[in-house]
Amino acid sequence: MRTLITGGAGYIGSHVARLLGDRGDAVVVVDDLSTGFTDRLGGARLVRLDLASDTAPSILGDVLREERIDAVLHLAARKQVHESVQRPAWYYSQNVGSLANLLLAMESASVSKLVFSSSAAVYGAVEGDSVAESATTRPVNPYGRTKLIGEQLIDDAAFGSGLSAVSLRYFNVGGAGWADLADRAVLNLVPMVFQRLDAGLPPVIFGDDYPTPDGTCVRDYVHVLDLADAHIAALDHLAAGATGHEVFNVGTGEGTSVRAMVDEILTVAGSTLTPEVHPRRPGDPARVVASAALIAEKLGWRAERGLEEIVRSAWEAHLTGTPGV
Fold first, then answer.
1. 261 Cβ contact list (under 8 Å, min separation 6)
2. Alpha helices in the chain (DSSP H)
3. Are residues 18 and 97 in the same domain?
4. Cα separation of 83 and 150, whole Å?
5. Among 43, 152, 167, 299, which residue carries the largest CB count within 10 Å?
6. Which residues are catalytic?
7. Is the predicted pLDDT of residue 277 greater than 70, yes or no?
8. Are residues 168 and 259 in the same domain?
9. Are residues 194 and 98 in the same domain?
10. Concatenated DSSP letters for 182-201?
11. Structural domain contains residue 234
12. What mean pLDDT is reported for the chain?
């Protein structure tokens, strides 16, 4: 199979690209390198492009035809919740605009298979121990709303143009499959804590007054290699003839508080620092944990790696990984 990956020089995209390359698939990466690194690409061709630009549909269409692409994995997006609250119009232009441009290009090149990087942020503030795909979607921040609108746009494209698509609602991602693919962008909790430790500063917890057992947010943390495997499963599902637009959670089904995660990081890093509690960030829901039953049933995917492996692999990669270029 010949696959184009947007955001393929990023943290998650590079893991997916390597797994595809290891099994012999041809991979083309489209990335603006705002948070990606060229040393992650291996032998994949890089097309450096701002997907939200006016010229993106034409350029992408040419790439899809030249490379005889069979399917697209769309991972490129802006993803900082607090930034989306501060810059909502820009987030809509980046996340929704980029997807619209990609769909225009795919339609022009007659490419009809898409795996979309969505987010658990589409659910917003949820109730109960876990959230299933059938739950009401009420995102509480602009980032989550851009992902939900993306899913709705894909729904329309599946109905109107025969697109076959899978949207994967990511929960919280961590860990590293290889040292050179470490999460370097400092956008997720684990690298944010690492950055503080490197500077000799205590980790920061945003809010300890949530309605959770220890007062900090509860999240479902999934290993990046497990998440990459979910993309492969979704891609193979489409290649086997799946039609329409299907949506799946990608998580473990287990919740871990931010305080518990920070404590695990401090343990693995051998640090005696005590976390500092800062005020809540706007747009952060108290608890978001996946029900992963549907993806297990339909795609045969289950998370295989736990919290300790997430933290230990991330810390080892942080210590030994090569700097990005």
1. 189, 190, 219, 221, 307, 311
2. 11-22, 56-66, 81-86, 88-91, 97-109, 142-161, 189-198, 224-239, 258-269, 293-299, 307-320
3. yes
4. 18
5. 167
6. 143
7. yes
8. no
9. no
10. ---SS-SHHHHHHHHHHTT-
11. yes
12. 94
Query: Structural domain tally of the chain?
Result: 2
Given CA atoms 43, 56, 225, 35 in this order, what sign does their dihedral have? positive
Exposure letters 16-53 (e unless 16+ CB within 10 A, then b): bbbbbbeeebbbbbbbbeebbbeebbeebebbebbbbe
269 domain-assigned: yes
Tell me the β-bridge partners of 276: 204
Identity of the residue numbered 162: G
Both 12 and 138 in one domain: the answer is yes
- Based on the fold, state whether residues 104 and 38 are members of the same structural domain: yes
Both tokens of 41, joined, read 């690409």
- Residue 117: which domain range? 2-174+221-250
Amino acid identity, position 270: G
Question: Which residues have CB under 8 Å from 37's CB, separation 6+?
Answer: 9, 14, 184, 324, 325
The C-alpha atoms of residue 173 and residue 228 are separated, in whole angstroms, by: 10
Same domain? For 167 and 183 the reply is no
Residues 226 and 303 in one domain: no
**Residue type (1 letter), 269:** A
Which amino acid is located at 316 in the chain?
E
Quick one: average pLDDT of 23-45? 94
**Is residue 241 classed exposed, middle or buried when 0-12, 13-18 and 19+ CB atoms within 10 A define those classes?**
exposed
Tokens for 155?
């729904």
Residue 322 has pLDDT above 60, yes or no: no
pLDDT value of position 321: 63
CA distance 190 to 279: 19
pLDDT at 323 over 50: no
Is the pLDDT confidence value at 325 over 70? Answer: no
In Å, what is the CA distance from 74 to each residue of 38, 57, 282, 308, 317?
Answer: 18, 14, 27, 29, 25
Decide: helix, strand or coil at residue 40. helix
SS3 state at 237: helix
The pTM of the full predicted model, rounded to 2 decimals, is 0.92
